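Researcher: Can you fold this with pyridoxal-5'-phosphate in place?
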Amino acid sequence: MKPRIPLAHLPTPIVKPQRLADRLGIDLWVKRDDATGGAEAGNKLRKLEYLLADALAAGADTVITCGGAQSNHARATALAAASLGLRAVLFLRTRDADAGAAALPRSGNLLLDRLAGAELVAITPEQYRDRAAIMQAHAERLSRQGRVAYVIPEGGSNGLGALGYVRAMLEIRKQLDLGLAGGEPFDAVVHACGSGGTAAGIAIGAALYDVARTVRAMAVCDDAPTFEAIIDRVIGEAEGLMGRDLPRAELRVDEHARGPAYAESSREQLEHVALAARTAGLVFDPVYTGKAFSGLVELCERGELRGGRVLFVHTGGLPGLLAQGEALAAVTP
Ligand SMILES: *Cc1c(COP(=O)(O)O)cnc(C)c1O
């Protein structure tokens, strides 16, 4: 096994939102990975357990990563790095990059990035396409100053980060063995897919530990072929790390829940966010989990999963939601 530092509060519970399950006509369970911690919580923390262990093993004093301005991954990295005494540099995508990092908002994830003392660097969407090179160049600059920087890719989505979700599936297997969540494997695991690492880890772990037959990764930005290629690459990297071929559950990338664009939601998607909060007290965010849940509602309406045992992985995202009050005005009193 690869070295790992415990950062997340584990195991996270699996809950049954009965009224929501009745409404959707499926045997719905929710894995509460929004509860992997406090302000640092979400799916990224499971990946960071491996990635930051690797950073420490490499003697790093600084971690460099990237994301959208309201990136949950960047925020989790900033807070986890602070807990380990590491500095964090975050390259954040914004159309107003010329105005500099000081002009980035002070709400949601960005507030937490700032509180954690992370160094914020605003980059344009065009620069963001070259994020790997930009982060590498920064690591080299720091190295010339005698520092040791460790670069974490977007979303923590490489083979090493994906091991966090392989391990999450082992955690679910143990919960099923205890008779929790109905005790039987699921027909499908459904989750939001933004950079592919979670999907890769779930697909491997669901098959390794007989957690589910199929995985439905709900794309929140790019199309299915793009994600399939990314997920294949990440699974290949994980196989390289483990030194063997790994099984994978039948994985389907669904693109019907993408919405108008990354971080932009349709009215119906926002209504589904409100539905989950009102019917089950489950708070999904419009960027990731809300879209994935809305995609699940649509599958149920089409009758695709009728009566099936479905595990929805709640991957977090609350700080981003809290920065979007205005966008949710249409569905809140
Ligand atoms: C990053 C993120 C995802 C997507 O996970 P990937 O591994 O990047 O595909 C889903 N939900 C939330 C809340 C996230 O922050």
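Model: Folded with pyridoxal-5'-phosphate in place. The longest strand covers residues 186-193.
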